[in-house]
Amino acid sequence: MARQPVRMVKTRVALIAALSLLAASGHGLAQRGQYCERTNYSAQEIADAVRNSPLRDDLKSTSCSLGGLGRFESGGNKGVYNGSCCTGIFQLNNANVQKYAGTDRAGYGCLSLQGQVDAWARLTNDGYRSQAVRQLASMESFDGQKVDASFIAACIQLGTGNCQKMVSSGKCSGFSDINGTTICSMANNAGAMSDPDCSDGSGVCGPTAPGDFPTSIGIASNPPAAASASIIVGPTDV
Amino acid sequence: MIPIVAIAIAGLTALPSIAMAQSQEGGGWQPMTYSNFQTPSKSDVLQNLVWPDVIREANAYVTTQLKRPLDGKNALVTALSTTYQDGPRIIIVSTALSRDCDSGANDAGAEIEPSICPLRIVTLQGGKVLAVKTAVGCYADHQDPRIPANNRNDNSYTRFDPVAGTIAFRTIVGGRDVSACSHTYSIK
Q1: Which residues of chain A have a CB within 8 Å of the CB of B75?
Q2: What angle separates helix A149-157 from helix A63-74, to the nearest 10 degrees?
Q3: Which residue of A has its CA nearest to B63?
Q4: What ipTM score was computed for the predicted complex, to two decimals?
Q5: What is the pTM of this model?
């Protein structure tokens, strides 16, 4: 019993030393965090928010994989902070949170899913005009991978300057984050994590049938009388 | 854009004060001073002479795109600046975080990167703007208390060489010099 305090002190000293080493290495205080409630939005819910966002129509055509991208980045948790740069469903970095959401990281983490996706969509729209994207969009494939809307979105997601490095290198490995994620692998992962039942390019996920012609607007809302019509279609003609 | 013709600056008294006290004779790197423009000021040179267009654009973005009222404030626009006195001239070097910046990766596996941003060098003399030079600089700050320990000294620095008529620029992020952010600008 008399030796236990000594052991506890030794343990405490060792713990403090370990924590000091971690802090000195610069990584000890880089802790993940959570703002507001933890969420678990599905790829489908994120894809729906993308479709309702101001994102360019040509990129919305890949909204299912963008739903997968949201799952890839945050696991559907809109309040998650990675402990360094990035927060939210699409892990916007601190500078982009300020520029596109007009708030700080904590405020951004507490925005609604749609609010976060709208800010991300505006960032993505701006990134679409960059040299890196224009160059990439002019290619059919890059380093053996098809250049499609998912690829373009991944290019913007990892930063157009970083994407330019990749494009200039001619290889997917021309840029990667600290986890080894490249723009090419991000595009693939986003596709893999999308909802398998989701379909791109429609107002809601589901069947892509064209639907009825609108009858509440245009000429269909005010058809000519049969007597004045120049073409008469009888029931048997249909 | 700011017109390059002379503009009277009577009434603009709030030059970035900390940097004003710096001597250009030491030749050392001066850390840039952080400014937040959310509180409007009619006497702030940075708000009224250097970045008025960027503040206007950010305000318009918040009210028309985000549809949020500003309630007499400005949008969240921040800038870094250094001010040098060179004889009768005052030279302001500043970079602002705006939507014209490329701010790097948005990714759970990413770390803090500097933003590549517009940089303006404004030369004043006798109450008038002599010249406005635009270039590309880097924005990095350490205002956020929850960033990792090795980012808590992130900043951009300038060094004025009055003989050569140049301003050198560098940015340190995570304890490392960012090579893409090393520039030397001529102000002759």
Answers
A1: 102
A2: 30
A3: A102
A4: 0.88
A5: 0.80
